[in-house]
Amino acid sequence: MGDPAGDPFDLGLEGKVAIVTGGGSRGEGIGNGRAAAILLARAGARVLVADLDLAAAEQTVALAAEEGGEAAACSVDVTQEEQCEAMVRAALDRWGRLDVLDNNVGIGSQGSVVEETRESWERVLTINLTSMMLVSRHAIPAMVKSGGGAIVNIASIAAMRPRGLTAYSTSKGAIISLTRALAVDHGPSGIRVNCVAPGPAYTPMVEAWGLSDEARERRRKASVIDIEGTGWDVGNAVVFLASERARWITGQTLVVDGGVTLLARDRRTSGELEGPIDRAAQG
Ligand SMILES: NC(=O)c1ccc[n+]([C@@H]2O[C@H](COP(=O)([O-])OP(=O)(O)OC[C@H]3O[C@@H](n4cnc5c(N)ncnc54)[C@H](O)[C@@H]3O)[C@@H](O)[C@H]2O)c1
C-alpha cells in the first residue's frame, strides 16, 4: 500500500489489472470508456478493454499500445452473465489478478413512462443497470483474491436532473444506489466502489446523434465555465477514483459536468426557463 500520505504523481496503478466495459468507441473518437482505458494503461495498469464491438475494443488497445501501454481486447455482451464471467476469467488467465473495474457500458433512452414501451424500458435497465450487477458479481470475488480493488460505475447527471429520458434517468439513479450498497457490502473485503456522473461530454455517442453546431454550442454553454467536456474528463475522474490517491473515498458520486448541475431555474424570472443559459441544452 506504500506511504499513506502518498506521492501525488504516483497513482499506485503500476502493474494493476483493470477491466473497462464499453471500452470501445465508434470510429476514431474518444468515448468515456476508451479514454479511461488509455489513461489507466498510461498509469501503468494492464487493461482488458471489453466491448460488444470487438473491433472498437481493438482500436482502443491499439491506441494504448501506441503509447507503450499494455492492453488486450475482449468481446462481451455485459447483459449475458456467462459472458461477464468469461470476461473476468480472461483477465485472470492473462494477468493473474484483478484490481480495477470501470463499469462504463450505457445506452440512452427517450421519453416519459407514458411514451416508453415496457420492452424498451426493460432493455435500458438491463443494459445500464443489471449489467453492472452481473459484472460486479464475478469481478468482486476475483478482486478479493487479489487483495482488494476499486470499482467505478458510470452514472449520469440525468440521475439528478431528469429531462425527459426517464428510463435512462431511472437506470442512472439506481446505479448511484447500487454504488453505495456495493461500497457497504464489500468495503470490509477491501473493495472501494464509487460512481462518476458525467454531464454533457462530447463523445462519439453524442457525435452519432448528428448534433448541429448550434446544439453542440448550447451543450457547451450549459457549463458554468463555458468548456465542452470530453471523454478524457470522464476518464481522468475514473482513474483518480480507481487510484491509491482515492484510498479513503468510497460510496461517492463524483459529478463531472463543468458545473451544469449547479444551475437551477432562475428564481428572478418566476421559474421560467430563461436567463443566460438555455437549460434545454443539458445532458
Ligand atoms: N457522452 C455523454 O455525454 C455522457 C453523459 C453522461 C453519462 N454518459 C455515460 O458514459 C458511458 C459511456 O458513454 P459514451 O458516450 O462513451 O458512449 P459510447 O456509445 O461511445 O460507448 C459505450 C460503449 O458501450 C458498448 N456497449 C453497448 N452495449 C453493450 C453491451 N451490452 N455489452 C458490452 N458493450 C456494450 C458500445 O459498443 C460502446 O462502445 C455510458 O454509461 C453513458 O451513459 C455519457
Description of the molecule:
Helix 1 (about 30-40) packs parallel to helix 2, helix 3 (about 80-95) packs parallel to helix 4 and helix 4 runs parallel beside helix 5. About 40% of the residues lie in helices and about 15% in strands. The protein has helices at about 30-40, 55-65, 80-95, 120-145, 165-185, 205-210, 215-220, 230-240; strands at about 15-20, 45-50, 70-75, 100-105, 150-155, 190-200, 255. It is of the alpha/beta class. Helix 1 (about 30-40) links the parallel strand 1 and strand 2. Strands 3-2-1-4-5-6-7 form a seven-stranded parallel β-sheet, sandwiched between helices. It starts with 16 loop residues before the first strand and ends in a 27-residue tail after the last strand. The protein has one domain: 3-Layer(aba) Sandwich (Rossmann fold). The protein has eight helices and seven strands. The structure holds nicotinamide-adenine-dinucleotide. Nicotinamide-adenine-dinucleotide (NAD) binds near residues 106 and 156. Nicotinamide-adenine-dinucleotide binds near residues 24, 26 and 106.
